Amino acid sequence: MEKFTLNFVADIFEQQLTEQQRNLSIHHIYTDSRQSVEGGLFIPIVGDRFDAHDFISGAIEQGAVAALWSRTEKPDDIPEDFPLIYVDDTLKALQELAKVYRQELNPTVIGVTGSNGKTTTKELIASCLSVKYKTAKTEGNLNNHIGLPLTILRMERDVEVLVAEMGMSAFGEIELLSLIGRPNHAVITNIGESHIEFLGSREGIAKAKLEITAGLQKQGQLIIDGDEPLLTSDSYPNKIYCGFNSKNDYRVEAYVQGQEQSDVTINGTTFTLPLLGKHQALNAAFAIAVSELMNVNINQAAEQLETVIIPGMRFEKIETKEGALLINDAYNASATSMIASLDVVKKMDYQRKVAVLADILELGDFAEEAHKKVGQSLDEQFDAIFTFGTSSRFILDGLPATFSGKQKHFTSKQELIEEIASLLDENTVVLFKGSRSMKLEEIIEAIY
């Protein structure tokens, strides 16, 4: 489907094109020259180790009909009539193009950020709103200064709602994303320890997350974890509080964990959530709060939540040939999210419970403290704790003196695979949790 003609782009960047060029239909806006497209506008990003301008010929072969261009010269090996839109910086141009496209389509934008639970909350909100609106959402990990503009530019012209995930690792990044996306309403799921190496403290993390208000539209509502003082103390006036204590606007009044699902009661409405953990009940409360802001009633929202499907590697369950249950929760990790996942496994009905815990990264000087905090949360309900990497060994140092299960630190994936394999049977559950770059999925793949 056509997003716009090249005339739309030329006008933004004040370019002169032939009439034939201006009428070119643009269907896809993209940055990967290897991607096969129809009617593509190629935007070559310049990185620390690459310059995608070098791949313009490949982009044309794959379907590009035009490109943004920040070099002064036109390549000799492209067609003479191939239109280039000259800009000073292709990344900033991508962001500006997204801003203008978002303004032209004018959907309701829901921005979602937080230390943990961004993706799940985004999925829950999008599912709830889809009963009434044509809804687009962030796909994959397109939640940064490149991914958010691409997410906006992927919207079809008849989209009514965009649920946009916003991630960051440093100050100023969420502010930039908020000013690009201009959310009508925003959600901050929680304040954990992620990126504390760069932000200095949980107070710093809260400050960075609250940057989402920079582009929040006038009268926009900020939906927050009402049990987190670092969020409730902020001066932004239009807040909706979600949480477990009685003062919240959307209160999780009851939570009962089953083997495959949870029974949750929020503001008097009980429903079954196909997710495990009290943190997921809170994520559902965020979704219901947004839904009612958007005139989707709580019963409609609850019905959608009962059938929601979450992307892989987020408490993904896999059964081995021996009948053991592997839980792949290794998409990413912080101390807070790791403890939450361990708490879920504690309540599961298995005779043997094993935790495979890898490094939590980007903690800097807080690495030892954060990993020990995870260890302190463990108890005799686990039969074995295996750690992998470097800093994760501090988890074992934090174990209570009363812990009597097996504990061992590994630096070899193959040795860890052999150790886990020796324990697998129908009475065993194994949780895998660690930062994304630790690649625990490789261990899971080798086992099953």
TrEMBL record:
GO terms (BP aspect): cell division; cell wall organization; peptidoglycan biosynthetic process; regulation of cell shape
EC number: 6.3.2.10
SUPFAM superfamilies the UniProt entry points to: MurD-like peptide ligases, catalytic domain, MurD-like peptide ligases, peptide-binding domain, MurE/MurF N-terminal domain
Pathway: Cell wall biogenesis; peptidoglycan biosynthesis
Top-rank lineage group of the source organism: Bacteria
Annotated InterPro entries: Mur-like_cat_sf, Mur_ligase_C, Mur_ligase_C_dom_sf, Mur_ligase_cen, Mur_ligase_N, MurCDEF_CellWall_CoF430Synth, MurE/MurF_N, UDP-N-AcMur_synth
Sequence positions that bind ATP: 114-120
Keywords: ATP-binding, Cell cycle, Cell division, Cell shape, Cell wall biogenesis/degradation, Cytoplasm, Ligase, Nucleotide-binding, Peptidoglycan synthesis
Gene3D superfamilies documented for this protein: Mur ligase, C-terminal domain (3.90.190.20), Mur-like, catalytic domain (3.40.1190.10), MurE/MurF, N-terminal domain (3.40.1390.10)
Domain Mur ligase N-terminal catalytic: 26-101
Annotated function: Involved in cell wall formation. Catalyzes the final step in the synthesis of UDP-N-acetylmuramoyl-pentapeptide, the precursor of murein.
Family: Belongs to the MurCDEF family. MurF subfamily.
NCBIfam families with a match to the protein in the record: murF (TIGR01143)
Cross-referenced HAMAP family: MurF
Descriptive protein name: UDP-N-acetylmuramoyl-tripeptide--D-alanyl-D-alanine ligase
Primary gene name: murF
